[in-house]
């Protein structure tokens, strides 16, 4: 049960320090490609994907019980996990590691904590600092609906930062009231006085590089 919940709430927290950002590149192994895979439709940001997966603590993990499975969509006849790729709906290791797949392709991803659940971990079975191993199979790819980009809407001066004034103005206009108390504090995770795209937990369009 954990991952559907856990992956889905990744955007709400588990922020990593900017200086520990790493890339999933080099940690992706394609273990099976159907014939003609790379000539066909490949996954891209914004696609609605169906994915079967099994997640375990990686053998290289510094935290947690190596090899221990924490979740699998293959257990108990569950449907494949359904989500939109590259939109911050899932951990970064997935958003980065599941690009350019074809239906039927299988991959193994080794996800470092900075691209997974960071220093906080998730649930009982993923301790902070854990490196995760996912074996995944792409079951379906569909055109995703265009996501609302609330970040861009609120960012009135288009400087890619949301100030308390901008957020307050949006609440006044759209909700007819003040911004909820503590919202700025909650979203401005590095406490530098504005909400960056990366910090923003609302709908914000396709994933992109740090500014
Ligand atoms: Ca701004
Ligand atoms: Ca900030």
**Share of β-strand residues:** 15-25%
Looking at the structure, the CATH topology of the largest domain is Chitinase A, domain 3
* End-to-end gap: 35 Å
Mean pLDDT, as a whole number?
87
Lay out the secondary structure:
Blueprint: H1 2-8, E1 28-32, E2 48-57, E3 69-72, E4 81-84, H2 92-97, E5 106-111, E6 132-142, H3 150-154, E7 161-162, H4 164-175, H5 183-187, E8 195-196
Antiparallel strand pairs: 1-5, 2-3, 2-4, 2-6, 5-6, 7-8
The protein binds calcium ion (2 copies).
Summarize the structure.
The chain is α+β, with helices and mostly antiparallel strands and 211 residues long. The chain has helices at 2-8, 92-97, 150-154, 164-175, 183-187, and strands at 28-32, 48-57, 69-72, 81-84, 106-111, 132-142, 161-162, 195-196.
Protein described:
With 211 residues, the protein is of the alpha+beta class. The protein has 2 domains: 2-142, Chitinase A, domain 3 (Roll), CATH 3.10.50; 150-196, Recoverin, domain 1 (Orthogonal Bundle), CATH 1.10.238. Helix content is 17%, strand content 21%. The chain contains 5 helices and 8 strands; from the N terminus they run H-E-E-E-E-H-E-E-H-E-H-H-E. 33% of the residues are buried. Bound molecules: calcium ion (CA) (2 copies). One calcium ion binds at residues 155, 157, 159, 161-163, 166.
List keywords for this structure.
211 residues, alpha+beta, Chitinase A, domain 3, Recoverin, domain 1, 2 domains, 6-stranded antiparallel β-sheet, two-stranded antiparallel ribbon, 5 helices, 8 strands, 17% helix, globular, binds calcium ion
């Amino acid at each position: 049960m954990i991952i559907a919940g856990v992956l889905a709430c990744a955007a709400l927290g588990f922020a990593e320090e900017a200086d520990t950002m790493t890339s999933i590149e080099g940690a992706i192994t394609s273990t099976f490609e159907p014939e003609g895979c790379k000539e066909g439709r490949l996954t891209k940001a914004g696609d609605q994907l169906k994915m079967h997966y099994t997640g375990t603590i990686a053998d290289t993990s510094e935290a947690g019980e190596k090899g221990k499975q924490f979740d699998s969509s293959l257990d108990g006849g569950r449907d494949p996990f359904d989500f939109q790729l590259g939109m911050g709906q899932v951990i970064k290791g997935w958003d980065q590691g599941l690009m350019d797949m074809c239906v039927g392709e299988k991959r193994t991803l080794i996800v470092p904590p900075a691209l997974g659940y960071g220093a906080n971990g998730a649930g009982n079975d993923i301790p902070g600092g854990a490196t995760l191993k996912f074996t995944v199979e792409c079951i379906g790819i569909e055109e995703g609906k265009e996501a609302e980009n609330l970040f861009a809407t609120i960012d009135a001066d288009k400087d890619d930062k949301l100030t308390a004034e901008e957020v307050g103005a949006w609440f006044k206009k759209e909700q007819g009231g003040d911004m909820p108390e503590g919202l700025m504090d909650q979203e401005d995770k590095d406490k530098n006085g504005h909400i960056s795209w990366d910090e923003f937990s609302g709908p914000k369009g396709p994933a992109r590089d740090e500014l």
